[in-house]
Input
Amino acid sequence: MLVRPGVKAGAFALGAVVALACSCVVPQDTQTLDALPLRNRPPRIVENAGMLPPEIRTPMGPDCSLDFVAFVDDPDEDDLLRFRWYLDYRPNANDPLRKLSLVDGTIQPNTTGDSTVRTTAATWKLTPQELELADPTTSTHVITLLVTDGELAPSQGPRSTPLEVPVEGTTVKDPRYAVSYSWIIDIDPTVSCPPPAK
Output
């Protein structure tokens, strides 16, 4: 069958128009999505920044004491940090003194400067009176510092994980962290401390 040139050309043109229409780029949605909130980051206990060595042999007579000091670095500069000091912490012990902290406190955000290391340190003075609360079966004791940027129940100690916090306006939950550091102290009963200066 013969096809007239005009008919063939018209069919080709119609096909080209259809193909062009099908290949048009569909405009994209230009709505800007809100940026995801910055995830919380863990604090860090700064080692060797004026800290006592991790293993200590010390007397602990009537005039003795040990000053524990630890600075904390937190890249989230607005976080309120909480700290707890433990003496011979053992979460599975029957003695409640092995589970609960002896000293609690907070570390506020810095008010000046651009350092992420807090200017306020977590401190504790260990005295013979407090050492009476230690495990009486041994002369070697463990001092543990816990720092968290979340909230922990009184029964939650080192190696606990704070609850995540919902991010307002989203279904996302922001993690919270707890970190700890321990010192081992060996009490030497044969040495006494000099009395404090008057």
Q: What stands out?
A: The radius of gyration is 32 Å.
